[in-house]
Design a protein that fits this description.
The protein has one domain: Luciferase-like domain (TIM Barrel). It contains twelve helices and twelve strands. The chain has helices at residues 36-49, 72-81, 99-112, 127-132, 140-159, 195-203, 215-232, 250-262, 266-281, 295-298, 313-325, 338-366, and strands at 11-15, 53-55, 87-92, 117-122, 163-166, 171-175, 188-191, 207-210, 237-243, 245-246, 310-311, 330-334. The strands form three sheets. Strands 1-2-3-4-7-8-9-12 form an eight-stranded parallel beta barrel, surrounded by four helices. Strands 5-6 form a two-stranded antiparallel sheet. The protein starts with 10 loop residues before the first strand and ends with a helix. Flavin mononucleotide binds at residues 57-59, 91, 93, 122-126, 140, 191-194, 196-197, 209-211, 241, 279-280, 283, 288-289, 302, 332.
């Protein structure tokens, strides 16, 4: 399947560490910072290194790490102001946000930053967070029904004058937003892997971002989504999470992984696993993103070890090409020490990926 993306270079995104504690639930020392200065510098390093996107996170409260959390839209704007090429994806959580405010904020930022802002609609996993801020915690598939209306409303507000919409969650009557964002419109990403998430991606999203996984798991998701999207006449691209440990030797990389797991905070990992598995169990299929995740997998919030971008630059580049072969358009990456490792990835891995892609192109042309 999926040679549709063969001619396009695979894109790279990194997780913005705008919450404290990095991307692993581990006490291993990390040189990653969560503040503005660290992140502005990181965004500059990333765009220099060849990254296309930076993905911010939204958390309203601490839990399982992430003691401090900067807000995603304001933070995205700060990163855009400090850079000139990279696109920044602002996470939006329907509930706390409604489409009216989101459309207006993002349109303004698009105007101010040369249309480099995109959004990631997340449907929520943390019931305690919703309780803490007095937001109703909807059932799993209701959350996705709301997210889908959110996306339809957002796109409608951005593209139509006198926009009218009658949903169960949002209503508009002849609403005209001025100014609208420029073109290209902000891209609409979504994060999640359940059946409801895949169905929504196949109807309305520009991008589907999923947790890490092995090739068979990812291939099944790609086939499911692209089959449904074709039936709906919709076009969607796919991004996969991975936690990268790139070192000069495979042994070094594996040793770092082992140390992250050995220093995991067992109570926090178990509590996080309990929360996210429950969030998925509440779906009609009884599973979501983390249904099959082991203790070791859960040490990385989004199953990033499973994608196995752990080893030498050559090994990692080959595995990224293998992901591309099964229809993945974007690798969403986390690191232990972000600034240093994003630079190393740009120096050592991205050029190898581009060389492999060019060799494929040449072979395809010759054939
Ligand atoms: C790439 C990615 C980014 C996410 N970012 C956030 C976020 O910033 N804030 C948040 O509350 N949830 C975030 N989530 C979690 C989603 O909101 C969702 O609850 C979770 O993936 C479970 O979805 P599922 O039941 O469809 O599998 C993210 C998920 C993915 C895959």
């Amino acid at each position: 399947m999926a040679d549709t993306n063969a001619a396009e270079p695979i894109r790279f995104a990194y997780w913005v560490p705008n919450v404290s504690g990095g991307l692993v639930v581990s006490k291993i020392p990390q040189r990653t910072g969560w503040d503005g200065d660290y992140n502005r510098r990181l965004a500059q390093i990333a765009e220099e290194a060849g990254f296309d996107y930076a993905l911010t996170q939204i958390r309203f409260t601490a839990g399982y790490g992430a003691e401090y959390q900067h807000e995603s839209v304001a933070f995205s704007h700060a990163l855009l102001a400090a850079t000139s090429k990279i696109k920044v994806i602002a996470a939006l959580l329907p509930g706390p946000w409604n489409p009216t405010l989101a459309a207006k904020q993002v349109a303004t930022i698009a105007q101010l930053t040369g249309d480099r802002i995109s959004v990631n609609i997340v449907s929520g996993w943390f019931s305690g967070e919703f309780r803490a801020i007095g937001e109703p915690w909807l059932d799993h598939d209701e959350r996705y029904r709301r997210s889908e209306e959110f996306i339809r409303a957002l796109r409608g507000i951005w593209t139509q004058d006198a926009f009218s919409f009658r949903g169960d969650f949002y209503r508009y009557a002849d609403y005209t937003l001025k100014p609208k964002p420029g073109t290209p419109l902000p891209e609409i990403f979504q994060g999640g892997s359940s059946r409801a998430a895949r169905d929504m991606a196949a109807r309305v999203s520009d991008w589907y971002l999923t947790n890490g996984g092995g090739p068979e798991d990812i291939r099944a998701q790609v086939e499911d989504i692209q089959g449904k999207a074709r039936a709906n006449g919709h076009s969607v691209k796919i991004g996969v999470n991975a936690f990268v440990i790139a070192r000069d030797t495979e042994a070094e990389a594996r040793a770092v992984l082992q140390e992250i797991i050995d220093q995991a905070d067992p109570e926090a990992v178990k509590a996080f696993g309990h929360e996210v598995k429950n969030a998925g169990k509440a779906s009609p299929e009884g599973e979501g993103n983390w249904a099959k995740s082991s203790f070791e997998d859960l040490v990385q919030y989004n199953d990033g070890f499973k994608t196995n971008l752990i080893g030498t630059p050559d090994q990692i580049a080959e595995r990224i090409l293998a992901l591309k072969d099964i229809g993945v358009d974007l690798a969403l990456l986390g690191f232990l020490h972000f600034q240093e490792e994003v630079k190393y990835f740009g120096d050592e891995v991205i050029p190898r990926v581009r060389a492999l892609e060019a060799a494929r192109e040449r072979r395809a042309e010759a054939a």
